[in-house]
Design brief:
- There is one protein chain.
- The protein has about 140 residues and is α+β, with helices and mostly antiparallel strands.
- The protein folds into two domains: about 1-30; about 40-140, no CATH class.
- The protein is about 20% helix and about 40% strand.
- The chain has one helix and eight strands, in the order αββββββββ.
- The protein has one helix at about 1-30; strands spanning about 40-45, 50-55, 65-70, 75-85, 95-100, 105-110, 115-120, 140.
- The strands form two sheets. It has a five-stranded mixed beta sheet, with no helix packed on it.
- The longest helix has about 30 residues, at about 1-30.
- The protein is rod-shaped and about 85 Å long.
- The N and C termini lie far apart (about 65 Å).
């Protein structure tokens, strides 16, 4: 009799675990998979420049890789890669700030703890004369 009760309890536990497994997998997938690859797309106030930031891959670590592309009148002029330390969460509109200036744009990333990392891209340093991608205009920032 004790053996039958133990077998029934074990069966109930196994069934419960099998029912719980898909729920936990969907939770993990939902919180580690990047559904929309585009983080942001911003146009300068004078409408001469566009900055687009896209997530690279499905990052499950604390750092997320981002490709930032800069366009001048719909021509890609520069591309750079950065990593954003956001404790594994996908960055959103609260995790960046752009400051447009006549000579440059200041891009600031903000992690979940409020720590900021900023860099400036000067328009004169970017290749605006060619409509083709120039490998010399590739930057890599790793914070």
């Amino acid at each position: 009799m004790k053996f039958k009760i133990i077998v029934i309890i074990e069966t109930i536990i196994i069934v419960f675990l099998f029912l719980l497994l898909p729920l936990s997998c969907s939770y993990i997938s939902e919180h580690t998979t990047i559904k929309d690859p585009q983080w942001f797309r911003e146009v300068s106030p004078d409408e001469q420049h566009t900055i687009v930031a896209n997530f690279i891959g499905n990052n499950t670590s604390e750092r997320i890789c981002v490709q930032i592309m800069i366009f001048n009148e719909n021509h890609e002029t520069s591309t750079m890669m950065i990593t954003v330390d956001n404790d594994g969460d996908v960055p959103d509109e609260k995790n960046y700030r752009l400051e447009w200036h006549d000579e440059y744009v200041k891009i600031t990333t903000i992690n979940n703890k409020g720590s900021e990392k900023s860099f400036r891209l000067y328009w004169k340093d970017l290749n605006f004369s060619s409509s083709t991608y120039d490998e010399s205009n590739r930057f890599l920032f790793d914070w």
